[in-house]
Write a structure and sequence with these properties.
With 371 residues, the protein is of the alpha+beta class. It is 22% helix and 33% strand.
């Protein structure tokens, strides 16, 4: 569990503790990052001896932006803006989006999937935070992981949680039509493994360096999750992460932490994630290349690979993806001559009947054919 923060003692001079805590919630809800292209048929020429290895990374999007909240000029406006954000998250229809994401997964059937922004939202009514209470909210409003697992099962797929890291666990009050409600947001990064993949040595770590918002006394926790995964007799160290989105300095330090953590690893390494660093010029991206990691998109790709971002309400008719920040890197791996990479969830046919995109990001798939 991420340690709870004492907002009251440090910020008593503000109008009230509710305003500070709700502002924090807005920042946390904005953790997010998207792409385009049609998924090709997977290559199978019958000449490979080992089973092809397929991996995917997908930021599924919490469902709301913090921009309206961060733009307020009066803290008394904050509670309503947070309520708007909460309602936006509900309106983003994650159950429907999860069904669309599951269809993309079925089309590629990756052995391993790195998921970001897997959210658990809980509430307590009436809330006690506004009076300084500390009873945690436990009533589940929406559990992204359970919903996605159900959507995968509905598609006849069998995936298991191989590992996950808890990044942020923050609770705060929110104004509603019926009074004050406490809302709790917990954010995870998750690795799913196909049921025929043998996994072991799970590890979850929060980065030592976190974005610090001094005015709020807040550290925005992020981290990574890693597992060993064996496919066709070969064991890989698979890592999934979601690097800092708002401040490049924090993102760069986290990238170096990630590189250092696996510098002595001898197994083939696969990094999956929303790295929030644009290819090919982002500073964090260049750190990864300098550490010997290969961006597999550069090998045999189709389209631009852009993965971010659709509109905040994910209802834009024309895809707005314009940067490539969701990436797959490898190291300690002799790459085959055939590595097919493509994006998913970014074509008009992937949109829900309501017009929603599956996420504000596109997913990325890499398919390795070993001879």
């Amino acid at each position: 569990m991420v340690k709870k923060l004492n907002f009251y003692s440090k910020f008593s001079k503000f109008v009230s503790s509710i305003n500070i805590m709700l502002l924090v919630f807005g920042i946390l809800l904005s953790l997010s990052g998207c792409e385009r292209i049609s998924a090709p048929m997977l290559p199978d020429d019958g000449t490979s001896e080992a089973e092809p290895l397929t991996v995917m990374t997908y930021n599924v999007y919490v469902g709301s932006s913090a921009e309206p909240l961060l733009a307020v000029e009066n803290l008394l406006q904050v509670p309503q803006e947070v309520a708007n954000m909460y309602n936006n998250m509900i309106a983003s229809d994650f159950p429907g989006r999860a069904a669309a994401i599951a269809k993309s997964i079925k089309a590629s059937q990756p052995h391993l999937i790195g998921l970001q922004e897997i959210s658990l939202v809980r509430r307590q009514s009436p809330g006690d935070r506004i009076t300084g209470g500390t009873v945690p909210a436990e009533e589940v409003v929406i559990d992204f992981l359970e919903i996605l697992k159900g959507a995968l099962q509905a598609e006849g797929l069998s995936y298991e949680v191989a590992g996950k890291v808890e990044n942020i666990d923050v609770e705060m009050p929110m104004f509603t039509d019926t009074g004050i409600v406490d809302v709790r947001l917990t954010d995870y990064d998750v690795i799913l493994s196909r049921s025929d993949v043998v996994v072991s040595r799970p590890m979850s770590v929060n980065y030592t360096h976190a974005l610090t918002i001094e005015m709020l006394g807040l550290e925005v926790k992020r981290g990574y999750v890693a597992v060993d995964a064996t496919v066709s007799g070969v064991t890989y160290r698979v890592v999934n992460t979601h690097l800092e989105a708002f401040v490049e300095e924090s993102r760069v330090v986290q990238t170096q932490e990630l590189v250092d953590a696996f510098s002595q690893e001898t197994l083939p390494i696969i990094f999956l994630g929303d790295f929030n660093t644009p290819a090919p010029d982002g500073t964090a991206y260049q750190i990864l290349l300098s550490a010997g990691y290969v961006d597999v998109w550069q090998m045999d790709s189709q389209g631009t690979g852009d993965t971010c971002c659709q509109n905040d309400d994910i209802l834009n008719e024309v895809s707005d993806l314009s940067v490539r920040i969701d990436q797959i890197f490898v190291r300690n791996l002799e790459l085959p001559t055939s590595v097919m990479t493509y994006t998913v969830g970014d074509k008009p046919s992937n949109r829900l009947a309501s017009g929603l995109w599956p996420s504000d990001h596109a997913g990325v798939v890499a398919h390795f054919v070993f001879e």
